[in-house]
Amino acid sequence: MDNITRCNYEKAYKEAIRAKYNIEKELGEYSNYLETPSQAHLRDLCWKILSVNPAPDDLKVYWDFKGTPFNTKEADTCTTYTDKYKKVGAFLRGEKEPQKIDTVDMAAILIDFQPRPFRKFKAKAMSREEQITVHSAEVLSKNEVEKIPSILKEPETHAFVKTPSKKTKIKIFKLKFKMLRTAAIIAVVSLIGVIIYLALPQKECMQWSGDHYELVNCDVKNEGSLTRNPVELLDESLVHLKKVDIYDDTVCFDKYGRATIWYAKTPNGIDFFNGHGRHPENNIALKPVTKSIFKKYAHKSHADK
């Protein structure tokens, strides 16, 4: 994993899923579905998994994959819906590379691959990379540092050993001292960098705070009223989600008539947001605002008051 570059995270994710699929289809709990991953088999397996364990991340993948919320009461067996699993089966068999990551995330659900979805796999991979920048120090390259022990152990040339002059000995001593000093500097500065890196708070998680997400440390404890909302792994697709107020002059649709504001009903009324996803406080899937919802719940603008 340490050798994975940013552009190869998706490739590694796909390879890991296929590797686990080859095991699951032979020995897994659902091998009877996966051994011949037909569209109908994968559809039935998806419904079986999500109806028993509807994890929030898996439900979001299902929404993105199918375009509608998961219905725990009734399995959708229509042809249009079933055909969506054709690409998942082709991916698992290694016949075709999907263009959308949603297809790969659905495959991860079907074989219970962890960590999933892709954003969590990438976050875990990135957290294992060590990137420490050292300033204001004389630093050798990695290859040069690795060569220092072998250089110091190498015997001097026969000429030096045979007739070592005082001047030559001084030069050799200075060269070794310089190498040792450089190696010591690298070790000390690297150690300081690691200590600083570990000591500084790493804000790789987020927490809903009233009407927006705030970046927080992943080890923040959920204690007291100020932290009653759970701490979640940083999701770049959701971190900018905000609760908004809409008025009768608010633009809620683009020029094509598509909603730009999303909503969810709550026990206290209705909440509006600037993007799609799930309600951060009750996990209800957000819906695109309609003209009737807009007309019914929009506040009067300040100009009309």
How would you sum up this structure, described in words?
- The protein has three domains: 122 residues, no CATH class; 58 residues; 93 residues, no CATH class.
- The chain has a four-stranded antiparallel sheet, with no helix packed on it. Strands 2-1-3 form a three-stranded antiparallel sheet, with no helix packed on it.
- The chain starts with 8 loop residues before the first helix and ends in an 8-residue tail after the last helix.
- About 8% of the residues have low confidence.
- The longest helix is centred in the middle third of the chain and has 34 residues.
- α3 crosses α6, α4 crosses α7 and α6 crosses α7.
- The protein contains twelve helices and seven strands.
- With 305 residues, it is α+β, with helices and mostly antiparallel strands.
- β5 and β6 form a beta hairpin.
Keywords:
46% helix, 3 domains, 7 strands, 3-stranded antiparallel sheet, 305 residues, alpha+beta
